Amino acid sequence: MLRQVVLACQLLVPFCFASDHWDYEETHADARDFTAGGTLHVRLGVGDLRIRRGDSNKIHLRYTVKSRRERNVKDAKVDFEVHGNDARIEFHSPTSGNTQFDVELEVPPNTSLDVHEKVGDMIVENVEGDKDLSLSVGDIRVDAGHSGYRLVHASTSIGDVNGNGYGETSGWLGKTLKYHGEGKYELRAHVSVGDITLEGK
Asked: Are 119 and 112 in contact (CB under 8 A)?
């Protein structure tokens, strides 16, 4: 998998880069009222994203923006809007690259998710609702065991799908898993280069 990610990074430069060292970083937090049962849309370029179930009717956002350039940290911005039962969070970094967001989100227990990310790892923990998750390079992990699904469709272009009870996968270079159950929600996930892991069934 490392070789696959390195190849994809070469193709996606300047979006993807490997570094554990950042010269500048800032951490911010925000919270907005949000009714359970709504839909949260997230758009993120580069970074790690974790979304977990909260215990209030609020969306809590905490993020750290990191870069090798101080100006990039200052110029990065986040749009956070809530309109009724629809919320949107978009992360914007300077086009010069070498900037990422590490994001933690806490959402009401019943929240549908529409999340699209370019490069990084995505984790969703114990959130009830429909999920539409896509990632270009990285891994997706979903704790899916708290409630049943009527449909699970998980696929990778290059990588593995670990269903853990949701059925067998098919494919060679990329994998596909399809599952039909008696639950209430739909889970759709796709990674271009990386793995998908479904846990907790």
From this structure: no
The amino acid at 45: G
Neighbours of 33 (CB within 10 A): 11
Q: Which among 31, 39, 85, 47 is positioned nearest to 186, based on CA atoms?
A: 39
Q: Which residue in 88, 119, 120 sits closest to 105, CA to CA?
A: 88
CB 46 within 8 A of CB 99: yes
Query: Confidence band (pLDDT; 50, 70, 90) for 36?
Result: confident
Torsion 105-55-123-82 (CA) sign: negative
Strand partners, 156: 191
Measured distance CA(37)–CA(154) in Å, rounded: 23
Cα–Cα nearest to 40, from 49, 93, 48: 49
Distance CA 73, CA 99 (A): 7
- Each residue of 67-76: pLDDT tens digit? 988 999 999 9
Question: 29: exposed, middle or buried (C-beta count within 10 Å: 0-12, 13-18, 19+)?
Answer: exposed
The helix/strand/coil state of 18 is coil
70 closest CA partner among 98, 48, 47, 49: 98
- Token pair 């490392």 is found at 2
pTM for the full predicted model: 0.87
